[in-house]
């Protein structure tokens, strides 16, 4: 029987189509067709990108030259512009403001690979550290209210370049999705007296059926009301509202959990396209300490159609319990030395 499930954070319903119950082998392997071209993100091609903003480099190497490990450059085709004030203007019933913001590309490795799953844990740790460092830098600009960090991997997920990278957009407003989560978390706390995300962690840890990886400081699971097949979340077990405040030991474990989760996802369906989204609290306004930051990994195996677009509800043909089991099985197919996390057990994590 299919089942309606409600997201405990936002007022959104999902149809979990248990009758379809699609497992990984029910999805076709995604074919990535790329034209042979010079990659502007590869080491040695630094002059093909806009001037470097930040980088982790070998001591003695010059800006915009080889020798970097993680590199940040402005997006060559930015969605927003850095100049100007973000003043709200009213035009009758319509509101608008200038396209003020920052749009950056974080080049995550010198190696020309599509995903973080192929990188060493130490490299993933440096990527996450750069996410934090750029967030802390850009929040000093009081024009910005939210720093959005995301990854598009695979053409179906919107990636225009194959080389492993993520993006950042600084925004002069708090996006609607984050506002919905903040309101949902506030309402839950007023009603229950606790954090909904912390309660989710406790229940998922107890039930185990949707747990993908259980670390000392982070839990990875397929959410109860998953919108998409193999949708996966990573949450800090400690209640933390601000990703920018992540500690060194948390950063190291998150790198291992994230890398291993992506390995399981890409092992379940070869070349699985996905979006990775970091949800954190807004900046430069009253701190939303009620918020609980987290990472959402959204595989792109299904297409939103009329029902989803017309109702805001989703139909998920792969129950999250089945997805979690499949991901755990995919973990077992990988070499032990490649993995630092155990599903449903304390993690044996590796890092630098």
Automatic annotation (TrEMBL):
Domain (DUF4921): residue spans on this chain: 133-324
Cofactor note as given: Binds 1 zinc ion per subunit.
E.C. no: 2.7.7.12
Keyword field: Metal-binding, Nucleotidyltransferase, Transferase, Zinc
Active-site positions on this chain: 165 (tele-ump-histidine intermediate)
Stored InterPro entries: ADP-glucose_phosphorylase (IPR053177), DUF4921 (IPR032576), GalP_UDPtransf1 (IPR001937), HIT-like_sf (IPR036265)
Cofactor: Zn(2+)
UniProt cross-references to NCBIfam families, sorted A to Z: galT_1 (TIGR00209)
Listed name of the protein: Galactose-1-phosphate uridylyltransferase
Provenance organism: Pelotomaculum thermopropionicum (strain DSM 13744 / JCM 10971 / SI)
